[in-house]
Amino acid sequence: MTRTEPHRGDVAAVSAVVVLVLAAAVVGRRLVAGGDDIFLGWPPLLAEWLPHVGPGTPAAVVVAVAVAAWGPGLAGRLAWRPLLWGAWAASAVWTSSLALVDGWERGVVERLSSSQEYLHDVPRVTSVGAMLREFADHILTTQVDPAQTWFWTTHVGGHPPGAFLLFVWLDRLGLGGGGAAGVVVILAGSSACAAVAVTLRALRQEDLARRVLPFSVLFPGAVWVGVSADGLFAAWLAWGVALVAVATSLRGVRADLAALAAGILLGYALYLSYGLVLGALFPITVLAATRRWRPIAGVLVGVLIVAAAFTAAGFWWVGGYEKVRVIYAASIAASRPYAYFVWANLAAVAFALGPAVAAALRRIPALPRPAALLVLAALTAIALADLSGMSKAEVERIWLPFAVWAVVACGALPHPRRWLPAQAALALAVNHLLLTVW
User: Fold this and answer.
1) Dist. CA 132–CA 361, nearest whole Å
2) What is the pTM assigned to this prediction?
3) 47 strand-pairing partners
């Protein structure tokens, strides 16, 4: 193999993704021009063309330059715990800076407090117990059930009650406003980079974890982590997977406790979003890669504890999902053609992944086996979600819980300082040229 062959392969991979994005944009605009209302202002993204700068612009540029220039070096030599805290802090600043490009009100406060979001329905809850008992009774809209007196707003009714319950608890703690809740979501969502690193280290891949961390920090998907609940979901699932990996690296009672904690997190993840059932691929991958099966018992017990608690409180997951399928079929999804979105979705998620991931995926065979399996799990989850037809558009945020694991492939890239600027540039371009809904 000559020295130019890897470079040519990378250019070809990135070019193929660019062609896919352009095709999705052209075909999407033709659909709109032909009378198909696909509810996208800038296909394939849910966004509109609006070049702008904001108070977050200087900080975002500084973080991008700093991480691209010094991130790989610091990741290679810092002690582990300071490195994790530093990465989380850098990711939080990067994510919040991108959000603030749109300004405090439009970029943070209004994201979770619109008429379609979680905070809109928080005042309805006078009793948590009553809310859980009656939750499924208000999923169907009047569009599909004319007898319905009132129904949950889009994001509340479209998810299990676990996500809504988190925002209710935040409100009870005095963090219920759009600004406070937005900051909590940013801080939580930006911790996914640390969770992925902890997972890799527990799988005895610390060197790889250190190479991946700068890419996880400058994750282009941070545009949608700040501020969307899906960013929180991504971190929640990631920490559940991390605890499974930690459990496989321990022995005795400590391993069992870690497995139980992992099960509780993973079990609750099922009540954050119905789509996170595909997140089961990641803990299964960790167990298969390590061939440590003892943690299964603790994980299953934890999952069952959460499921039993929600069921006893009055919410049946399967029944809720069936009703969501009904309202989904009657929603804007009905006018979004499957034949277009089944491939245009991949163009949309490419914005969250970035060019570095596009180039890195062809290097999956060069990754250590546990890391390669995690990346393949991410691609499998995305493929299954795509083929299901339950995710037509908006996947740049919906698939964040899977996308953060695809970034692991970047650990196989040579010359990370050549790719990190490209990742940052994409995120900066998206946030400065487009106005995203999330």
Assistant:
1) 42
2) 0.96
3) 436
